[in-house]
């Protein structure tokens, strides 16, 4: 059974967040991978289980202090059977049966919660094993847990549940993102959005991942990977597909002939440094009522130091076409210092953070007092200037 109903129950969610391998099967809550000491003073792994009923978002159990143990006789570190372990066969599900009933009633007569009950018995069973081998653990973490049915991840997102952000994270449900351009800033955008439960992420870029990309993109490719010269989109889809299940790749450049690739998106990040097609892409997205963010930077060398601006342009579904297109850069007649491959991975990352933060404010994940359509960050002055299409501009200093 998936942990989808489990994660909504407060006690069981605490167990999952602690890293216990919890599931429900055969009407029992089962905690797997519990280390215990055997009679020959070695470490083995067993399970503890007790009957429960799933009722809506709750996992209900009686106040019975007993719990059942699946495995050989649990012992102390000297190989002596634990006094609380009583031989008793108990069916957990059609394939699993417990051999021992554990009975350790607390002084109060009952455990205050299922969380307290499980953790108390796990301590009793596992501490002797830890005395034999300090490296063993009863909390192997999310890698050993079932994933919620409704989340596009390969393992549980315990960071969200630990922070209590599950309700806020619902704003990402049903979001279909497209990132155009994965050379630098786009890779960092992917790094951030892949950690949200958006339904899908489409990557579009027709270039290969070369040596210079490795020095201004997230992650660290191996020499062998660089020698294979994969398409950028395939390289990043493979990397972030380890976490997020909804990533697909299109190793092509966007042109007038394939703009329809963008039509299924609910939001688009334009991260390519080639401005020759940005206006066509933006006009198409505005016509399709698809909100988007366009990022860019202009960096130059002055007196042996780098200076310049980072830009984030946001257009929502009601954006004025003329005003929005007027805020996008025109194709440059000459390539600037950044385009000559100055390695500034931190600026790529910073530009991506500004873009993802603006997207999250657009969705309502973050509070938003500015609702700006254009934001520029000055490297030299460390200032952010916000501008709105209605003319109500705002300037604020970036946190130093």
Numbering strands along the chain, what is their spatial order in the largest sheet?
11-10-9-12-13-14-15-16-17
Strand content: 25-35%
CATH topology of the largest domain: Rossmann fold
Order of helices and strands: HEEEEEEEEHHHEHEHHHEEHEEHHEEE
CATH class identity of the largest domain: Alpha Beta
What is the arithmetic mean of pLDDT?
A: 87
Q: Could you tell me the number of beta strands?
A: 17
Give start-end ranges of low-pLDDT stretches: 394-400
Q: Major β-sheet, in short?
A: 9 strands, mixed
Judged by helices, strands and strand pairing, the structural class is alpha+beta
Q: What fraction, in percent, of the residue positions are helical? A: 25-40%
Q: Note the overall shape.
A: elongated
Helix count, per DSSP? 11
CATH superfamily of the largest domain: NAD(P)-binding Rossmann-like Domain
Can you lay out the helices and strands and say which pair or pack?
Elements: H1 10-18, E1 21-25, E2 28-37, E3 43-51, E4 53-55, E5 58-60, E6 67-70, E7 85-91, E8 97-102, H2 114-132, H3 158-163, H4 166-169, E9 176-180, H5 185-193, E10 200-204, H6 211-214, H7 223-228, H8 232-240, E11 247-250, E12 267-270, H9 278-287, E13 292-302, E14 305-315, H10 321-326, H11 345-363, E15 374-378, E16 383-387, E17 394-397
Parallel strand pairs: 9-10, 9-12, 10-11, 12-13
Antiparallel strand pairs: 1-2, 2-3, 3-6, 4-5, 6-8, 7-8, 13-14, 14-15, 15-16, 16-17
